[in-house]
Amino acid sequence: MKPDTRTFYEDAVRAAVRHIVGGLDAAIDLGALARRAAMSPYHFHRIFRGMVGETALELHRRLRLERAAWCLVERETPVTSIAFEAGYETHEAFTRAFRKAYACSPSEARQSGAGVGRGCAGAFHFELATPNGVHFRPGTAAVADLHFIEGGTIMNVEIVNMTELRTASVRHVGPYNRISEAFARLGSVAGAAGLIGQGSKMLAIYHDDPESTAESELRSDACVSVDDEAKLPAELGEQRIRAGRYARTVHVGAYTELGDAWARFLGQWLPSSGERLGAGQSFEVYENTPLDVPTEQLRTLLYLPLAG
């Protein structure tokens, strides 16, 4: 491993955690975090999740809730004021979130912290479970407690050199889990045009980070590989996967688990690999479909662009 590679990613993520911890009163700007790290939001937030065990937004929300719990016990601030400081628009929304996290209401937590009441079992502790060690610390630097996630599932990754790949595509705008609608349109149009053959690859490109982009605005492309000479129908767009070095791993199982696979790929394998992200887009290639095999046998290739 190149000596500065893991340090590069750790420094970028640590700076983001420091910014989050120091700005609990402000709404988190996920795009700005990625820009500070000089990465795309799509890649940075998966690196963050893989290294920290939470997304940046989840970390921000948890620390706000821990601060609120601490305030309930240590201060006499009205619950409604604490709710607003934690980012909740109503007392009811805060109470629901608090009860889900702590298994008791804010008022019960305040009573238990004062040694009365029976809502929370035993003495009340405001720290919530987390794999990274970062908790709300009044007046201290909580980032000093940060430790990164390591030793996760070992991934079998290979480095491949790819030539440019031309694809015919259908753009999908909306929730990523509905990209199957775009694949249905792609299959209908491309199939009728004779563009789908035995050697065709079905792949998807996801352009936006779901953490920082509204679900209704997420952009993705359902694609099928085509020859350079192929004439594309007017209903289809064109996307080209640039030539270069890519890291490739395979995910076997449900598509709903792909987010976790990407987090491990970017957040655990990449920082320890000696590699840096390159220009270009990450993408997925589907070697089979739910029409062919049971869910547990689905095979999806994940491609990550590398520098150099």
How are the SSEs placed, and which strands pair?
Blueprint: H1 5-22, H2 30-36, H3 41-52, H4 56-74, H5 79-85, H6 91-102, H7 106-113, E1 158-162, E2 165-173, H8 180-192, E3 202-206, E4 219-225, E5 237-241, E6 244-252, H9 258-273, E7 283-286, E8 299-305
Antiparallel strand pairs: 1-6, 2-4, 2-5, 3-4, 3-7, 6-8, 7-8
Helix pairs in contact: 1-4, 1-9, 2-3, 3-9, 4-5, 4-7, 5-6
How is this structure best described in words?
By secondary structure, the protein is an alpha+beta fold. It folds into two domains: 1-149, Arc Repressor Mutant, subunit A, CATH 1.10.10.60; 158-305, Alpha-Beta Barrel (Multidrug-efflux Transporter 1 Regulator Bmrr, Chain A). Helices cover 36% and strands 17% of the residues. It has nine helices and eight strands. The chain has an eight-stranded antiparallel sheet with strand order 1-6-8-7-3-4-2-5, covered by helices on one side. Helix 1 (5-22) crosses helix 4 (56-74), helix 3 packs across helix 9 and helix 4 (56-74) packs antiparallel against helix 5 (79-85). The two termini are 15 Å apart. The model has no long low-confidence stretch (mean pLDDT 91).
